[in-house]
Design brief:
With 339 residues, the protein is α/β, with parallel strands linked by helices. It is 41% helix and 19% strand. The termini are far apart.
């Protein structure tokens, strides 16, 4: 199948494109390169431009009239930035996605897989959330994802479209073949911070908050290898019609599926796993929680197995190892590019 992938030159989008290619599908990438990397699109069907560019979208579908699905990954994703610049996030993530969905409907591409986020969930006393759990998006970024889910659901009802919203938990690692990976210069996520400290780019890793009501007092998250995440998108398009015909699917046009490993990992456990992989301790300290920090949650991923036949295959340690290999490779790539 041929698939339009918006944001296909980004960390997650490019990995999805690799998984599509490995499964015999043909990705067509649309990326503005505001955050994406041109290196991740080399040798692939690539169009540089904005997702709301009607002329470009029309041209893409004229040249690739056999596109059957759109996987919509393009978005701004940094939570602290969304608090500082909510106008950018509502414009890029909501306004432009709305225009994209309108154009896809007009162009006849009515099957969509949407990159959503587990950040829209409310806190759970058990730390486990399923697709029916309460929602409480608490940042502009999270609210944009929530809004787009609601808009997309309404489009499916009104315009004979079908969509699956995949709610990501916390992707880590890289493409195991090292074709693409994370490229944020100053990462704020835990694994990026650990790599920065172990490589000497930062002095100390801060465990922010040690008095949460978790098994060891530190925050808990669900970390999923980005390759497992990418595979789920392949399953989603391959089983799209089967999913909507399934007795386990409650809606005939719109479905939500959690993508996580179903096992929570605390900050201390992640640090221990990282130190085991690198076979040494890193400099670390314990501090108070940051403003806005929450104890966290992890996925009930039963629905993903029922509807997609998907479950995670790679471990947290696999994600750490792949991230370390990729980080070293990317540093060398950047040095070569700067010459």
């Amino acid at each position: 199948m041929k698939v339009l992938v918006t944001g296909g030159a980004g960390y997650i989008g490019s990995t999805i494109c690799s998984a599509l290619l490995d499964s015999g599908h043909v990705p067509v990438i649309l990326d503005s390169l505001v955050n994406g990397r041109i290196e991740f699109a080399e040798g692939r069907n690539f169009y540089k431009g904005d997702i709301e560019d009607k002329e470009l979208l029309s041209s893409i579908f004229e040249e690739h009239s056999d596109i059957e699905f759109t996987i919509h990954c393009a978005a701004l994703i940094v939570v602290p930035d969304s608090v500082k610049k909510p106008d950018d996030y509502y414009t890029e993530n909501v306004g432009k996605s709305l225009e994209l969905f309108k154009m896809l409907n007009e162009l006849g591409c009515k099957n969509i897989v949407f990159s959503s986020s587990a950040s829209i969930y409310d806190d759970s006393p058990t730390f486990i959330v399923n697709e029916e759990s309460n929602l409480n998006p608490r940042s502009p970024y999270a609210r944009t994802k929530y809004m787009m889910e609601m808009i997309l659901k309404d489009f499916c009802v009104a315009y004979d479209m079908k969509a699956i919203a995949l709610r990501y938990f916390n992707p880590i690692g890289s493409d195991p073949e090292m074709r693409t990976g994370s490229y944020i210069k100053s990462p704020s996520h835990i694994l990026g911070k650990l790599i920065q400290v172990s490589s000497g780019k930062e002095d100390i890793f801060k465990v922010t908050g040690t008095n949460w009501d978790t098994r060891d007092g530190t925050g808990i998250r669900d970390y999923i290898h980005v390759w497992d995440l990418a595979r789920a998108h392949v399953y989603a398009i391959e089983k799209f019609e089967i999913i909507f015909d399934s007795k386990d699917c409650k809606d005939v046009t719109y479905e939500v599926i959690n993508l996580g490993n179903g096992r929570g990992t605390t900050v201390r456990e992640m640090v221990n796993a990282f130190e085991n992989v690198i076979e040494k301790e890193i400099n670390k300290t314990e501090t108070e929680p940051r403003q806005g920090d929450v104890p966290g949650a992890y996925a009930n991923a039963d629905k993903a197995f029922k509807l997609l036949g998907w479950k995670t295959e790679l471990t947290t340690e696999d994600g750490i190892r792949d991230a370390l290999v990729w980080s070293d490779k990317w540093d060398k790539t950047l040095k070569e590019l700067s010459r």
